[in-house]
Structures are given as structure tokens and as C-alpha cells.
Amino acid sequence: MIEAVGLTKRYGDKTAVDDLSFQVRPGAVTGFLGPNGSGKSTTMRMILGLDNPTAGTVTIGGYPYRRLPNAPRQVGALLDAKAVHGGRSARNHLLCLAQLSGIPARRVDEVLGVVGLQGVAKKRSKGFSLGMGQRLGIAAALLGDPRVLLFDEPVNGLDPEGILWVRNLMKSLAAEGRTVFVSSHLMSEMALTADHLIVIGRGRLLADMGVKEFIAANSADFARVRTPDTEPQQREKLTSALTEAGGHVLPEQDGALRVTGLALSHISDLAHEADVRLWELSPHQASLEEAYMRMTQAAVDYRSTTDQKAGLMQPLPPGALPPVPVPGQGQPGWYAPPPPQDGGRPSAPGPYGAPGADVPNPYAQDTPRAPQAPTRPGTAPQGPAAAPSVPQAAPAADSAKPEDPR
Ligand SMILES: Nc1ncnc2c1ncn2[C@@H]1O[C@H](COP(=O)(O)OP(=O)(O)OP(=O)(O)O)[C@@H](O)[C@H]1O
């Protein structure tokens, strides 16, 4: 288990991590989310003893990383996939790390197989695509067969096949009882991978809860109800019946009604009693991305001056209602769904349940692919920080040259 207590990091005037307390438990994938600059990497670096806290503590299995016995066998991390000596082959890079940590050489071939790099094991890593570099970083993290794994943006640069592979890998590592702590900006991916979320904004803890709980607490479930378009009086009749029963009804742009506060079965019964025919009655819940946007909108440090989403925070004119989001048609003027009906306080999970996904196929592999475009230009995903750091190599003109003997 990873445990942070009052963890704080200041760089001069800048507080990067502010009194953060949380636990990352074994047997689950815990997602670590937050806007750019919110302190995720700083937190991960402090967990791994690469940065000293200004205040507070962070321990792994009860020890600060630097006092952890045989740390590389207990903790594996992918912090910067570029932190590799580019002149070395993938295999030699891993061999160096293995030797430094007393890990047998046969484990190198095992992890190369796990990440699907056995075919390019003898190629110099400076010729690797971003995705192949990520795989090499993941291989380094797995080298010591650790019980605790940290991954900073592990799917950065991976193609859809690679993303699926990482998702399955994370889940299977957690299913083996390991502690898996992973940061990502890809909310759709986190929704499929993580069981639990730790969300920070400007260095502070915003949420520490299950994925389903997080979505329920930061969005409102609702039902979409549609009566025949040709009979507007049916719509009026249903609106009255639903409102009288305590429902909250809002018209949507396409003529449907958005209903909150009533279960689907109750809406159906009320429509039946009012003798109103329905063309649609469907449950809806915000996505993790929408719930995340809603929670973190006030903690975003970097926003484009031309970004329409910035308008979200502007107050509406007196008496004006916010624009109504339309599922599947975008949300005009809104970056996140409207607040929960209880006035913004976290609400109990709604009646319609959250979407879930369970993908088996542990350690499924695929072969590395041709070079891919980076998804976040200028940002460097991470390498084997848990192992001793390896200096980054200068760019090479020709990766087909024989391997650098160093
Ligand atoms: N060595 C440093 N010196 C000064 N400021 C730093 C240093 N490292 C990080 N910071 C600042 O601390 C804050 C948190 O940075 P950090 O990299 O931890 O955020 P992050 O959540 O990982 O961001 P991103 O999602 O963009 O990777 C930022 O404002 C950053 O500029």
C-alpha cells in the first residue's frame, strides 16, 4: 500500500503539492487524475524518493522509498519513457537495470515477451517509436516483479491496440493483488481501467473514491422521455403528471424531456396512468470525462484565451436558465453537464447505474508497430524511475548503426 500523509511540496513560492493525504490499496487499479500542473508527477516523484517533501510523509508498505528494503524488487515505475540510453538496445537497457538491482538476466527476456518487444530486443532504443518506448518503460517497471507499480501516462503514444493491452495489463496486475497507481489524461480510458480514483487540483485532494461513486457524485442521472412529435398536447400532459409526482422536467432541444428525480419505472407508470404514449424512455448518466470536467473546472491552471469552455464559469444573466445539454448533440456553451439536482453536493448513486467494463485477457500482447505520432507533444512519458536513472541520450542521426558499446 502507498500512503501519503499531509504530503506537501513547495518550489519557492509555488506549492506544487498541498497537504495531500491518501492511500493507494493493493488489488485495485487506482487512477490519479488532475489537470496539467496539478502536482501528479511531483507526487509520484516523492513516492519514489526522487524528490523530498517539504512537509508530510509518503510511504510504501510502511517505509519511505529510500528506506524500503530491496526497493527495485518491491516497486516498479514508469515515469519517463525517454529516460533511456538511446545507444543501447532494449535488451541491454533492461540488462543494465537488472544487474544494478540483482535481478537475474532471464527475467529480462520474460518482460520483453510480456511487453511484446522480443522482436526488436536487439535494436537500439533511440530508433523506437513513442509507443515502443512506452513498452520498454513498462518492461523496466515489471523487471523486479514488484508488488507496487506506478505508471505516469502509460498509454501516451500507444495506438488503440496498445491502449487495450495496457488496460488489460493494469487490470491483471491488480487482479494478482498488486498495488497499481496510474495517472492519465484519457478519461475514457480511466473509466475502463480504474476501480478507484484520486483526483487532485492545484496540489490539493479533490476526490478519493470509486469510479462509479465519482461519476454519481459529480453528475446527475436523468431520463430522456419522448412523446409522439405529432401530438404536443401529450407532451404537456406528461410534463404535468411528472411534475405533480415530484419530478424535475426540462425540455431538450429535439423535443424530448429530460427528467430527474423519478425512477424510470415510475415515469413509465405515470405515462400509462395519464394515457400518454412514449416513443422513448431511456436512462442517461454523465461520462467520467463530464464528471471530471465538472469537478476540476475551477482547478484548471492553463486555459486558452480562445477556449469557449472558459465561458462555463461566467455567471448567467438574472433569471436566465443554463443551456440544456442534449445527449449525442454536444452541450452548447457548456464544458460539463449541469450540476447535480441537490445543489452541487455529492449525491447518492442514481437509479440507473453507471456503465462498467470488464475486459479479461491478462498479459495479452501484440507486436510493436511502426512509429506513431505522440499524443502530447513536448511531454515526456516516463521510464524506469524506480530503478536507478539512466541519462537521456542525445538524438542519433542513424538508428541503424551498430549498437553503442557503452
Ligand atoms: N522542479 C520544479 N521546480 C519548480 N516548479 C516545479 C518543479 N516541478 C514541478 N513544478 C511545478 O509544480 C506544479 C506541479 O507540476 P507537476 O509536473 O507535478 O504537475 P502534473 O499534474 O504532473 O502536470 P501534467 O499533467 O502537466 O504532467 C507545476 O506548476 C509545475 O510548474
From TrEMBL:
The keyword Membrane does not apply. Residues 343-360, 373-399 have a biased composition (Low complexity). It holds the Pfam family ABC_tran. It comes from the Bacteria. Residues 309-406 are annotated as: Disordered. Residues 2-227 form the ABC transporter domain. It comes from Streptomyces kebangsaanensis. This is ATP-binding cassette domain-containing protein. Keywords: ATP-binding, Nucleotide-binding, Transport. InterPro entries: AAA+_ATPase, ABC_transporter-like_ATP-bd, P-loop_NTPase. Belongs to the ABC transporter superfamily. The lineage of its organism: Bacteria, Bacillati, Actinomycetota, Actinomycetes, Kitasatosporales. SUPFAM superfamilies: P-loop containing nucleoside triphosphate hydrolases. CDD domains: ABC_BcrA_bacitracin_resist. Residues 315-326 have a biased composition (Pro residues). One of its GO terms (molecular function) is ATP binding.
